Amino acid sequence: MEGFDIVKVSYVKELLLKNVREDGRKLMEFRQIKLATNIIDHAEGSAQIDLGATRVLAAVKLQVEEPMEDTPTQGNLMVSSELLPLAHADFEPGPPSPLSIELSRVVDRGIRAAETIDLSGLFIEEGKAWTAFIDLYVLNYNGNLFDASMMAAMAALASAKIPKYENGEGVYTERNEPLKINRLAASTTFAKVDKTILLDPNMHEENAASARVTIANDGTVVRAMQKGLGGSFSPKEIENLVDVSLSKYDELKKVIEQAAGK
Amino acid sequence: MPRQLVIPGEMIASEPVRLDNTYVENGKTFAKVLGFYESEKRQVIPLEGIWQPRIGDIVVGIVVNSRNAVYEIDLSHFTRSILIGSKFDREAYKPGDVIEAEVKDIEDRRTLILWRPRVLFGGTILEVKPTKVPRIIGKANTMIEQISKFTKCNISVGNNGIIWLKGANVPLATEAIRKIESEAHLSGLTEKIKQMLEEQTQTTSK
Amino acid sequence: MADKSNRPQLIVDGKRLDGRDLNQLRPLKIEASVLKNADGSAYLEWGNNKVLAAVYGPKEAMPKHVQDPVKAIIKCKYSMAPFSSMGEHSRSGPNRRAIEISKVTREAFESVTMLHDYPASEIDIFIEILQSDGGTRAAGITAAAVAMASAGIHMKDLIYAVSFGKVGEDLILDLNMIEDNYSDCDMPTAVSPRNNDLVLVQMDGSLTREQLHKGLQMVLDAGKTISQVQKEALQRVYEGRENGNGV
């Protein structure tokens, strides 16, 4: 870490001793969320989120493919992410970094576990099913890519329309039928800085954190979790964070539904 | 003062003139940077861009290396700067210390000699656009002193765009500085910032 | 280029499929300084193209062995999002086309950037095509020029780019995807407007000398509009300027 970052990290830690955050937020408060859909007309669904200064664009493309051998009556889901070099000075062009792979896999698991889209519903006929490609494009990085990406992915799915199917392929100029959404998942990411735990860490807080955990839920049950970084949480801490996560569901669901016009 | 936004390649004069941030081609003078052209003063003031060091500039940096009382200070903007300590005070600064100092000499575009150092303990760092620094300081320090007064912060502003802050209300000081940075081209800003600081400090004290 | 035997009729009564005249640009919108972290950036919509360009630097050139002690190097990466085209999802990552476009774009900027003002440094240009409908390299250059200016980079000029092409014997300006696919020629061109020097030239198809002359004239005429849109994008960021700068 560069010298200037070390100064900022010590400052974040010093403030948190008094439960004060650098930007004045409460410990369990999200930054301002701006979410908009239908950003990319060529995609079947798309959404862009501003979570504070973190900006992620999510796009859904649907494509006719052969179902996987072990699930011949289901469609498929493919989530990928790009930490674009234009999003931060430290993001280098090149093959996906471990963070980028972790990010797409965590979002993938959240969508699958919550059964947000019904994969059997994507089956068309023997040998043909829709694959839903979700691309997460990180355009500006200032911490907490997990929640930003999950929310953008949910809104992109919720606003997606399926192309007409004809002669074994998709007719992309005719997209009328909305993609069926079973259940929205909401993601909450917490960072632990020394002994303090906070929601929606910004970049400086992430740099200061020893541990991070992402909890996705559907308002009733936990659907996916991922702990990151070198530190740890106690069982009690995780249980408490699940409570916080569940309590945030309605608020996040509303943001997603409003953006998707539901 | 009449002034006009110019973009790179815009003609400033139909004769050759030696001005900062311009170039001469085929006997004509063109802007080489996005800026304001002030025809009376005949100058092009850049609106963006990296720091262009001058002797006498105050800088804020961080000690990255120390050897035999010669310190290397990171000032960002890919400059290497060197601070030569006193013989009698061999390990005055250690890596990680935040230092305010003055540019004494410019060896080349990338190597500066500093003097008159002062350590800034604790606090945090804010990076701003170097082109906005004069506005953040204000005429005869008016702007920065007013921020300092309302937020009860010690603030050190480097011409290299590094600002050090420590005190009671760093978030408010940061907000004020960011506002100046984004509205630096507007007039009446000192008054506007004062109003904002007054409002914010009143609501928080209630 | 696609099989011309099933070419749709691209021009009917002097109008193109999207209703444009032969020498008419698609609607062009640019917004400068849209990304917080980048030193300079621009978002551009040109017809159905949507492009984001960002500039980082000048900063110390890395790795050190690529440094030039007397001047800056430019690195440029053009890439197309896998969701950018109407139709199927494409593979991400640079292909040969993207690598070539990145190179000629870099060279276009090298021709106007005052590299000697920034010894041992690098300037990074990133161009992301979020939605594509023909002419993305021109759109990328036009956006990147605004991003370069908004990063405060010293340049001789603010370059722009646009392509012209040919359908039968008709010359057309600013080809969209379907025109690009079926035209008899496509010539993306980038121009330094202060002296109309060409800083990027690519062409394939067939053109007579006269058609080349006429096509370039179309480019230069349209360039006035493109340059104006670029400048207005920068003006809007700094608008509200008043007398007295208080400095």
Characterise the protein shown here.
The complex is a heterotrimer of chains A (262), B (206) and C (247). Chain A is an alpha+beta fold. Chain A is built from five helices and twelve strands. In chain A, helix 2 crosses helix 3 (145-158) and helix 3 (145-158) packs parallel to helix 5 (235-259). Chain B contains four helices and 14 strands. In chain B, strands 7-8-9-11-10 form a five-stranded mixed β-barrel. Chain B has a three-stranded antiparallel beta sheet with strand order 1-5-6, with no helix packed on it. The model of chain B has no long low-confidence stretch (mean pLDDT 89). Chain C has helices spanning 96-110, 136-150, 177-182, 209-237; strands at 11-12, 15-16, 28-32, 40-46, 49-60, 73-80, 121-131, 160-167, 170-173, 185-192, 197-201, 204-205. In chain C, strand 10 (185-192) and strand 11 form a beta hairpin. In chain C, helix 2 runs parallel beside helix 4 (209-237). The relative contact order of chain C is 0.18. The chains are: A alpha+beta (262), B alpha+beta (206), C alpha+beta (247). Chain B binds chain C through residues 1-3, 5, 7-9, 11, 21, 23, 25, 30, 32-34, 36, 45-50, 78, 108-110, 131, 134-135, 138-139, 185-190, and chain C through 39-40, 58-60, 112, 114, 118-121, 149-158, 192-194, 230-231, 234-235, 238, 240-247.
- The proportion of residues forming helix of chain C, as a percent range, comes to 25-40%
Which CATH architecture of chain C is right?
2-Layer Sandwich
Strand order within the widest beta sheet of chain B: 7-8-9-11-10
Question: What count of structural domains of chain B?
Answer: 3
CATH fold title of chain C: Ribosomal Protein S5, domain 2
Strand content of chain B: 35-45%
SSE inventory with pairings:
The complex is a heterotrimer of chains A (262), B (206) and C (247).
Chain A: H1 3-16, E1 33-37, E2 45-51, E3 54-65, E4 76-83, H2 98-113, E5 123-125, E6 128-140, H3 145-158, E7 161-166, E8 169-178, E9 186-193, E10 196-199, H4 203-208, E11 211-217, E12 222-228, H5 235-259
Parallel strand pairs in A: 4-6
Antiparallel strand pairs in A: 1-2, 2-3, 3-6, 5-6, 7-8, 9-10, 9-11, 11-12
Helix pairs in contact in A: 2-3, 3-5
Chain B: E1 3-6, E2 11-13, E3 22-25, E4 28-31, E5 35-38, E6 43-46, E7 58-67, E8 70-74, E9 80-84, E10 98-108, E11 111-120, E12 124-127, H1 133-137, H2 142-151, E13 153-157, E14 162-167, H3 170-182, H4 189-205
Helix pairs in contact in B: 2-3, 2-4, 3-4
Chain C: E1 11-12, E2 15-16, E3 28-32, E4 40-46, E5 49-60, E6 73-80, H1 96-110, E7 121-131, H2 136-150, E8 160-167, E9 170-173, H3 177-182, E10 185-192, E11 197-201, E12 204-205, H4 209-237
Parallel strand pairs in C: 6-7
Antiparallel strand pairs in C: 1-2, 3-4, 4-5, 5-7, 8-9, 8-10, 10-11, 10-12
Helix pairs in contact in C: 1-2, 2-4
